[in-house]
Every structure is written in C-alpha cells, then in structure tokens.
Amino acid sequence: MTRSVRRNHRVRRTARAGGAGAAALLALSACSSSSDTGTDSDSAGASSSSSAKVSGQVTVFAAASLKESFTTLGETFEKQHPGTEVTFSFAGSDTLAASITGGAPADVFASASPKTMATVTDAGAAAGTPVTFVRNRLEIATLPGNPDRISSLKDLTGSGLKVVLCDKTVPCGAAARKALEASGLELTPVSYEQDVKAALTKVELKEADAAVVYKTDVKAAGDKVTGVDFPESAEAVNDYPITVLENAPNPGAAKAFIELVKSAEGQRVLTGAGFRTP
Amino acid sequence: MTESAGTTPTPPGTDLAAAAPRRPRHRGRMVPVPLLVPALIGLAFLLLPLLALVIRAPWSGLPQQLTSPEVWQALRLSLLCATSATVLSLLVGVPLAWLLARTDFPGRGVVRALVTLPLVLPPVVGGVALLLAFGRNGVVGQWLDAWFGITLPFTTTGVVLAETFVAMPFLVISVEGTLRAADPRYEEAATTLGASRFTAFRRVTLPLIAPGIAAGAVLAWARALGEFGATITFAGNFPGRTQTMPLAVYLALQNDPAAAIALSLVLLAVSIAVLAGLRDRWMNAS
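The joint structure predicted for all components is written out below.
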C-alpha cells in the first residue's frame, strides 16, 4: 500500500519538472526516425556478399492468414540478404488496406482478396499491378476430434451449435457468405469476428463449436482444431494479390521480397502451409 | 488497438464534483506562463482530433447514416450495457472501496494493487482472461454451464461483464480516494452513539461520499461506453446482441470510413450530453 502511494508521489514530482513532456516527445520522434537510418548504415558494410544491393528495413503488411508462412519467408529473406530486417504487420486485409490508404508507411501489401487490394489500388497507393501469388480455400474448423460430427456446411446450420464466422467486411467472411449463398443455406452465427484468427481462437478456446476459416488456418492450428472439408468451398476460392506500395520507403527490398514469395522456394513454403499455387 | 484509457494510476475525476463548487476564485491574477503554455498545448492536443472528426464528418450523408436501424440498435445496446455495468460496479465496487479504505487486514496493499490491475491490462488480454474464467470451458464457466446451463460468451450479459471488468477499477479507486479524504470521526461518533457499523455506513458515510461515488460512477460509465477490446474478445460481435457502438465503429472503419465517423459522432454527442447533464445536476445538488 504505502509503496504504491510513494510511487505515485514520485511520478507526480517528475511530471511537474518543466518541459519533461516535451523532452519525452522529442526523444520519441528521434527514436522512430533513427531506426531505419541506423539499419541502413549498418547494412551498407554487411551486405557485400548478396547479389542485389538490398538493405535496410522492409515493412510487409500481410493478411492474418499469411502469418506462419510469411514469418518463415521473412527469416529466409533476412538470411539471403544480410543487413535487412523484415517487419510484419498481420491483420485483417481490410484493416491493413484502411491503414495503407490512411498513409501507413509500408513497403509491401499482401492481401487475402482482390476486393481489399482494390481499395488500395483505387486510392493510387499501389505501385504497379498486383499479382496473385497464392489461392486459399475455406474449411470448417471444429473442436478436436470433431465431437459434433460435422461433415458439411449444412450441419453448421443445425440448432444448438455455436458457430463463428468472420465479419462480411473481412475476406474470409465474404468468402464464407459466398459459399453459403451458393449452397442456399441460412446460417446464424453467434458472432461475426474481426479477422480469421479471432474466429479460429474462439474454437481453439472451445467457446465456439465450429468456425468457417481458411484451410491454412486449420493447418496452422495443429491439433487444437480438426478441419472438415466442404465442397461449397470451391465456390469461394480466394486469390491473394501482392504488390509494392507507391510510398514504399524501401522499394528495392520490397521488390526482392515479392520475388522471394513468387520463387520456387517461396511457393514451397506457402503450399506447405496449405495454400494452392495460382 | 487504440485503447489506452486504463493507464493512469489515479483517475483525474476523483474529487471533481466534491471540490469544484468550493474552489476559491482568484480573479485578475496572472496565470504563470510555464503553466499556461503546456496547459494550452495539452488542451489543443486533446481537442484537435475531436475537432478533426467534426470537420471531416460526412455531413451531407449524415441524416441517411443516422436513420439506419443498425445505428440505433448499436447505440441502444451500448447505453444499456454501459449503464448495467455501472450499476453492477456500484453494487460491488462501493463496498470494496469501503473495505480497502476503512478496514485493516493483512495483504491489503496487495489486494488494492490487484483491484487496479484491469487499469493497466490491455483490454484484449482482459477479454481472454474473462474467457478463461467465465467461458464455456473456463475455470468457473464450465460449472455455470454444467449446473445452470448458463454460458456467458456471445451474450449481452457477457458484454456487461466485460465492461464491468474494465470499468469497475475506476469506480473503486475514485470512491476509495473520497473515503480516505472523508473524516472518519463522523462514523466513529455515530458508532459511539449506538449505531452499528453498517448503519453508520448507510446513514453517515454514504451521504458524505455521495459526490465521490457519483464522479466514480460517471467515470466508470464513460469507460464502459467506449470499451472495445474486452468486449469483442469475450462477447464477440453480433448486431443487436453484442455489437456495441465501438465495435460497430471499428468494423465500419474497414470498408466505410464515412459511416464510422458518423457513428463516432453519435457516440460523442450522446456521451457529451449525458456527462454535461449529470455534472449540472451535481453542481446544483452540492
């Protein structure tokens, strides 16, 4: 008790010192601006061995479903190009698209649907035309061992089952909706989650009985969920486009990263995670 | 997540209502520049983003946005849940604050620190913690499900619980501060005159700290109204059942920023109206 009170006093005293806030702000901005110049100068000497002169920090905004495979590819990239540092931001493609059009400093955008990519290209934020690098299909994630014996999309509409879907603003939600519409099914979930990983988590925590997510997510979750294939998923195959961004701070490295993703090695990692080649 | 309301150790509104009317006025005295300049910078920093929201608001499309039933559904749910969470916080939070301020038991400092923990915990983590405790498979939740058939995630009750978890510490801290500042001799006098400790609390302490309780309740209500992370994690997102305004704003932001701004303006207007209304009432009462 007394300790926490004393600490409060101390905090208040430091805060009172003139200009402390301004100094902190300055320090903050100095920090953020020095980080990339720092890595730039470091890498200038180090990257003599690699073929292209690629160095510095690359910021990749990628759909949540790419988390596992892109993290692996990021490590590969850093090994191939010493002196580079790949920073990822994984989130719902729509969230990422919104922050890119809002001016977020990113080099590469890999989205889970052409529609979310279109918001970026329409805003003139993409450099060049996006290319499709993988495809993904939906799958039903059930509790381990599938205790509810779910075998089709129709089984999910049964009463008593708690099903979560992605929100329709997110690619996985849009795809699920398309598959449901194609099969003429009405499904009322307990929740529309903000991205595919959030939907999957609800099943992993056993709060929901099933979720409609990507095949790759089921695979990444290991034995925490059981995947159930359903034929309607063919109606809603998601193309994943990737592009360098117009305001990329490091366009050279961005191009090199996309090359790696499209290369045989990149495709091997991605198909290993459950993606299909385009 | 953009939520960071929970980091201040002592909420600023603690004795707002109690102190404001009694403050002596220093008219005509110069405000020292080293105080004035940072104060104005602070004020501008807080108000500018709100102003930008108003400036960039899609005013022409606003009537159409505001007449959509989804908006009212989300707003009604938000107000209902925030108010329920505040009532719940009052019912258990005021006694908890009294316990912390007026009794002496071993480990009180630790308990007090634990009570304030949700203030620093990222709300999303709070939501996961709630799932692990009250989820269908949670430590307590599995028994609730097995014995009573009650499951809390994905329900409106779940939203109220998530908001209470995040908002109650504000109330407890606020009320505890007021209790510590209140003179305990009034209660002691009441007990020496034969009142039980509970009667003394009810008839003497409670009226004495009423302004502090009100300030804490408003703080908790405002925090509950804006709550996002714990709610979406614990209660999910379903229109009409668990989709409160902040969730609707977040999801609208993804594909329709104009709608998100309109929704935010509604939330802003409602909270300003409620907070201003309540403040006026206390000012006149005290």
